[in-house]
Amino acid sequence: MDLLRFITAGSVDDGKSTLIGRLLYDTDSIKVDQLETIQKQSKNKSEGEIDLALFTDGLRAEREQGITIDVAYKYFNTEKRKFIIADAPGHIQYTRNMVTGASNSDLIIILVDARLGVIEQTRRHTILASLLQLPHVVVTINKMDMVDFSQEVYDSIVAEYSKMAESLKIKDVKFIPISALNGDNIVNPSANMPWFKGETLLHLLENVNVAQDINYDESRFPVQYVIRPQSDDLHDYRGYAGKVLSGTYKKGDRVTVLPDGIESVVEAVEVHGLEVEEAFAPQSAVIRLKDDIDINRGDLIVKQSDIIKISQDVQATICWMDNRPLVKGNKYLLQVQSKRVRCVIKEINYKIDVNTLERHEDFDQVGLNDVVNVTIKTASPIAYDSYNTLRANGGAILIDETAHTTVAGCMLQ
Q1: Bridge partners, residue 366, by sequence
Q2: What is the CATH number of the domain that holds 146?
Q3: 400: exposed, middle or buried (Cβ count in 10 Å: 0-12, 13-18, 19+)
Q4: Interior CA angle at 400 toward 396 and 402, to 5°?
Q5: Residue 294 has what DSSP assignment?
Q6: Band of the pLDDT at 67, cuts 50, 70, 90?
Q7: Looking at the 3D structure of the chain, how many domains does it have?
């Protein structure tokens, strides 16, 4: 059974938490004791109604204010697929939370209030989705029950959003009119909108093809752990464990270990402790090489014919996540997959307006939630891909070595 990671985003009170609660409730993914607790806390319990948003609004501050602050992760599965949901905050001051949740997602659900249409937060989250190269966008026009299930309202929002998506070059966009509160077009088709001939939200989530998003042309295997049992029966065993980010690996493949550029040949590939003909993304595997090479955690094994960047000067678009401002000359750790290197912010090139994608070169400082383009100087060369061409190996984070906290999410260029 495969896995789909998706995130919900939208403006405040668009119904993100209610939508997720509806999905969990209608797919029988809520435990009895949790359901009983929510029933007691629901504001409308006297009328027999359940406040579905409480299933995801886990923080006390969220429940008191009726908003989402943190990224709430929920898990459920159907007969066809497993799901991990990230419920992202709608407030502008929590942009970093939305970026964090979206960076690991295959799909984003953007909610639009049918009464308000496409607003500033809708545009902001769509622009962030385009920057993060999310392959699938689902626009759910929510609260259709409050506009009398009007097809005219739905068509107008679809037309306006489609123009924006086209300008941002978002390829896969789907639209669904829903009522998260009442369950219209969530799990079952809505009798209130017979004019809509598309699929329900759950059907779309169960059937969206995420396998086609994996790059099988370039092979990337970051080493996470070197296995050396040094036992009597496995005296010469040396295996390199990790996850195949993209491409495939099989016995006989000629590979290069980066960043040192040492060449070798794959002697064997193991998955779940057994030798296999081939390992492919996104499998976890162990690769054994014919040559005895000094390979460490963070090194990257690629096919010899693959083209990849190796440099100490790295340009990146970053989302700043720290309360302290970003300053040229600051020193951090840059982590790309399992490799960590010390680095310094060499230049702050420009700031990106997340509402318009305009670039601004005149700014005072870089603060919390700002998106900027920087040049990073690393202490030693790193091997990486452009985020726009190979998302799996183009993402990174900046870490404050002293505080042991992540201060920025990076899209390498």
Answers
A1: 326
A2: 3.40.50.300
A3: middle
A4: 150
A5: -
A6: very low
A7: 3
Q: What's the rounded Cα separation, in Å, for the pair 157 and 141?
A: 8
Mark whether 155 and 206 lie in a shared domain: yes
Domain boundary among 213, 228, 243: 213
Q: Are residues 67 and 196 in the same domain?
A: yes
pLDDT of residue 346: 96
Closest listed residue to residue 249, CA positions, set 236, 240, 258: 240
Lowest average pLDDT, out of 75-84, 91-100, 238-247, goes to 91-100
DSSP codes of every residue in 4-45: EEEEEEESTTSSHHHHHHHHHHHTT-S-HHHHHHHHHH-TTG
**Which pTM value belongs to this model?**
0.84
Can you spell out the DSSP letters for 373-398? EEEEEEEEEEEE--TTT-GGGTEEEE
Exposed (0-12), middle (13-18) or buried (19+): which is 43, by Cβ within 10 Å? exposed
Decide which of 303, 318, 349 is a domain's last residue: 303
Chain centroid offset of residue 12 CA: 21
Asked if residue 167 and residue 148 are part of one domain, the reply reads: yes
* Contact between 62 and 92 (Cβ < 8 Å): no
Nearest-CA neighbor of 366 among 410, 315, 402, 328? 328
Q: How many CB atoms lie within 10 A of CB 275?
A: 11
Residues 96 and 183 in one domain: yes
Coil, strand or helix at 154: helix
Q: Give the structural domain span for 402.
A: 309-412
Q: What CATH number is given to the structural domain containing 350?
A: 2.40.30.10
Q: Do residue 254 and residue 371 come from a single domain?
A: no
160-193 per-position pLDDT tens digit:
999 999 998 898 999 999 999 899 999 999 999 9
Residues 88 and 36 in one domain: yes
Please report how many Cα atoms fall inside a 13 Å half-sphere around the Cα of residue 128, on the Cβ side: 36
Residue 320 confidence (pLDDT): 92
The b/e string for 208-217 (b: 16+ C-beta within 10 A; e otherwise) is bebeebebee
Q: Any idea how long the chain is? A: 413
Instruction: Tell whether 27 and 162 lie within a shared domain.
Output: yes
Residues 6+ apart with CB under 8 A from 9: 16, 88, 90, 98, 102, 108, 109, 110, 111, 125, 128, 129
Q: 3-state class of 71 per DSSP?
A: coil
Same-domain pairing of 123 and 193: yes
